[in-house]
Structure prediction request, 734 residues.
Amino acid sequence: MSAVTEPATGPQTGSSTSDLIARLREQENRPALVGYLPVGYPTVDRSIEALKTLVDHGADIIELGIPYTDPVLDGPVIQAAAQAALDAGARVRDVFRVLRELTDYAPHVPVLVMTYWNLVLKYGPDAFARDLAEAGGAGLITPDLVPDEGADWLAASEAHGLDRVFLVAPSSTADRLRLTVQATRGFVYAASLMGVTGERSEVGSRAEQLVADTRAAGAANVCVGLGISTGAQAAETGRFADGVIVGSALVRPLLSDGPLTDDEWAARLTNLAEVTEDLAAGVRSARANALTDDTSDAAPAGATISGEAP
Amino acid sequence: MTDVKLSDVSGPYFGQYGGRFVPEALISALDELDTEFRKAAEDPEFAAELQRLHREYTGRPSPLTEVPRFAAHAGDARVFLKREDLNHTGSHKINNVLGQALLVKRMGKKRLIAETGAGQHGVATATAAALMDLECVVYMGEEDTRRQALNVARMRLLGAEVVPVKIGSRTLKDAINEALRDWVANVETTHYLLGTVTGPHPFPEMVRQFHRIIGEEAREQILERAGRLPDVVAACVGGGSNALGIFNAFLDDKDVDLCGFEAGGEGIESGRHAARFSGGALGVLHGARSYLLQDDDGQTLPSHSVSAGLDYPSVGPAHAWLHDLGRATYEPVTDDEAMEAFRLLCRTEGIIPAIESAHALAGAMRVGKAAAAQGRTGPDGEPLLILVNLSGRGDKDVATAARWFGLLDQGVASEELERQEGRG
Prediction:
């Protein structure tokens, strides 16, 4: 429990992520756009350029993935990028440099690191949390760490004031939802469907119920991910979610089988910017659509955000 | 803890090892499996049905064979083999598969998925699926589908779909990744029939339970045949299911040495091996905390072995626990040593072992020779008594062995072999 004496209007104190989500909800009546990219794909420097592109074109929160040899919750697109990043020599410590550059560039954008647990275990959970906090990171998203196994991480994140984003799934029981919500800080990541990351033609039909159930279990902020790839899907999901998480659809424009020239890379970034803007327009129209019953495609461009903190 | 026998320790943790490092999406299915497993363990009907299958389908109890001509190469020891190679489908794998498949029937699921390396577990799973009218999908690294083309055909004959996995190192580790991805997506209708004592709880405990019959039979058989407990029990350790199955019956007999033999590949110093206890460190892979071959960043390192079944970068958490307790020892056996033991058993006893099991045979030779050199015997000067788990038969390995020993004449047979191995 927090020692702060003010009334508990804010969901969780001390989380820039939950503060941002609350502000977007209250002041802009919209969900956050959470955009994922892996560190080091295609190279560390180019991954920084791609991340800045996400920020410039409308991502509110960044999910920064660390490439891992055995990403069991990722589909083919993110697997391919992670493997290529590792082949190109990406190291775990690169995440701290990327974080530093990104948070210097956009201090108002919370950056959460998404990582499979063994990489943190090997680094040392407390040392990882310390270096993450020092580099300006907001916290961790842990796809293969459930709170039951997370004692080390709960202690380290507490000591360094970091968000703990745990996942819930359509298969989670009410007890599991409560347990997960209690351990979470920042937001709860609700998997829209049973499956791994990847683009799909429809958003999971169980997402809305899962968000409602997770709120009923006490969550202040519930963001939805897995399978969301278009502005229209972001708008649909954003009707009921506090944030929309997109990964594979942002990685796909960057994929290539071989090295890219500077011009080719610039073209990839232009594609990435377009996809991001489409999604950003989607989250901005989510609740307007619900009111006007306008379900046509979201406006394609002009969705860049002003960017400054309040 | 003091009043719990080592052989009855239950999950989710074995010391600091084990646990459930998996996506939340799988937790409710693991809970359901755990509940069903514990209910079945109390149910005499379940035990009776499994026992009937063991007897009428698998051919249990598997025999215990004394091998004196082989033992002449293992110091002055007497060596007995527990003949899991004579089980239906050719290895110990069927014990676990039948147990889990019966659980699946009770849970009402219709679809099985499994990973396989050499193909033994995949063949056993495809067999149980055919027997019990279940849909079956087996994930197998693309490299392994080439190396074990005949086992791919066997699984297809049995009605299973075999999916070659084309990402990562394209071996067993990647097949498990892909099976886990399938399971996350289909967990409500599908059971993941994991083939060894690794993975998230309850798999390490449950798979041990289904294999403990190996040790229980062997204990009874050797008491009857030799009149006493063995001095040494030797087994090969990949994930560790056959080893845990035979060790378990002797865990609480402090005078019985338990010796696990890992794949030393081309030697520890070469970096090309699967010796987790010699070259690994604490880590998490595929849902369990255990010893793991990993680099400085915690990325999984590729393993290597002449035997596909031992070619896995982690090891069952119960073995990690027994290792740290000092209750069992784990040593690497190189490809060369294993193949020499393989050849020796063929020539001296007329038994072609799986190359996996040949690692245990090589280990037994090492232990026997060391004992002879030190003048160590059994009680009252009796010969040292070594029990080896012969976990599988070597039919699947004939092509590898033929190439290793240069047994084929140039020409047609050789070309056929190359073609079968996808190297042509």
